[in-house]
TrEMBL record:
PANTHER family: COP9 SIGNALOSOME COMPLEX SUBUNIT 8. Residues 27-154 form the CSN8/PSMD8/EIF3K domain. This is CSN8/PSMD8/EIF3K domain-containing protein. It comes from Trichogramma kaykai. Gene3D superfamilies: 1.25.40.990. It is found in: Cytoplasm; Nucleus. GO terms for cellular component: COP9 signalosome; cytoplasm. InterPro entries: COP9_CSN8, CSN8_PSD8_EIF3K.
Amino acid sequence: MVVLNNLEEILVKLEEEELNSDDGSVNPETYCQMLAIYLYQNELCLAKFLWQRIPANVKMACSDLRKIWSVGKKMWTRDWEEVHIALNVEWNANVREIMQALKGKVQERVLKLVGDAYASLDLVTLSKMIGMSLDKTKEVAEQRGWNLVGNTVKPTKAVPKSNASTTETIAEEQLHKLTQFVSFLEN
């Protein structure tokens, strides 16, 4: 079993295992875990490079590896509905925990994107994008403080919390640096 709070350490060990192997390849389970962790970390480029260096015979022999890469391809194209469809399969024990956590992370990422980018969105579309039922989608929208008008969700943008004193301090520091720079130029 993989422990999510140790993913970085696990990844380092897996990468070392790959680097230290005699022929540059490792067992399919190692590749599966590496690929799943890269996706979990949203390191799509690293996932793609890993996929490219995995030997073709390993790709063909390991269905879990192909299923994980299917998720990666959908993430790459940002086809969120298809990402959730690809994630809703039975995963092998060595990647199950990571892939389940990835599903939650993708849902949260999509909800943040929707909140930042949309003034309104059809409830069915949002439901497909986050891979949840309509009822669960309504519940999530309400928890976020989004308005529901009929079958339309109206996200409210999160207002960044700014500390006025911190902002003033930064502005004063910048003004001081600018003053010093101008004084230097005048000399």
